[in-house]
UniProtKB/TrEMBL annotation:
Top-level taxon: Bacteria
SUPFAM superfamilies given in the database record: Acyl-CoA N-acyltransferases (Nat)
Protein name per its UniProtKB record: GNAT family acetyltransferase
Species whose genome carries this gene: Achromobacter arsenitoxydans SY8
Classification via PROSITE patterns: GNAT (PS51186)
Length: 199
């Protein structure tokens, strides 16, 4: 199903990527605190990732949107949903992910945007389930997934894109179904400052 979606929340706009987003995105991806649990990216690799995410939005009408905070900053990172990479052992499906610049942690932006992205996935796209995954040691992101109302699968999986022997290879998988998301109180926790890897 294709949509033409630009998502607005009380404080944020989730939108298609712009050329001006590349420089702050590369800076975000060069911040060791933001990328503590991610494979490092060069500026060129960061630009290529932005191009892939933009192409995914063009294709589907939804994806990992660039996030703007009007009156605060024209670009603070990305939040959204996108199809899983085929190499993942639990593909096909759709993942939710987010990555915000450190300067915008602590303001509740991730919570606001992630809930909007889930709403698009379940109410507009019609998905039955959305998953998230992160490095097993990334306790901050795992807590975020809990607050979204997601539940962890037992055990771990090795991310096939991460080199064997890397401490970032072991990942945990979380899920939330549409029926659980609709339950009163589901996902009402405050998501903030989380970093979830994008494939």
């Amino acid at each position: 199903m294709s949509l033409s979606v630009e998502v607005e929340t009380p404080r944020l706009v989730l939108r298609q990527w712009r050329a001006a987003d590349r420089e702050p995105f590369a800076a975000l991806n060069g911040d060791p605190q933001v990328t503590e649990h991610l494979l490092p990216l060069t500026a060129r690799e960061s630009d290529a990732l932005a191009d892939r995410l933009a192409a995914g939005i063009d294709e589907h009408g939804w994806g990992f949107w660039a996030v703007e905070a009007p009156g605060v900053a024209p670009f603070i990172g990305f939040v959204g949903i996108k199809p899983l990479a085929p190499i993942l052992p639990f593909a096909p499906g759709v993942e939710i992910g987010w990555r915000l610049a450190r300067a915008y942690w602590g303001r509740g932006y991730a919570s606001e945007a992630a809930q909007a992205a889930l709403r698009v996935g379940f109410d507009q796209v019609g998905l039955d389930e959305i998953v998230a995954f992160t490095v097993a040691a990334n306790l901050r992101s795992r807590a975020v997934m809990d607050r979204l109302g997601m539940k962890a699968d037992p055990g771990l999986f090795d991310h096939p894109a991460v080199p064997v022997g890397s401490p970032l290879r072991a990942h945990v998988l979380y899920r939330i179904g549409r029926d659980d998301w609709r339950k009163p109180g589901a996902g009402d926790g405050n998501l903030d400052g989380a970093v979830v890897a994008a494939a």
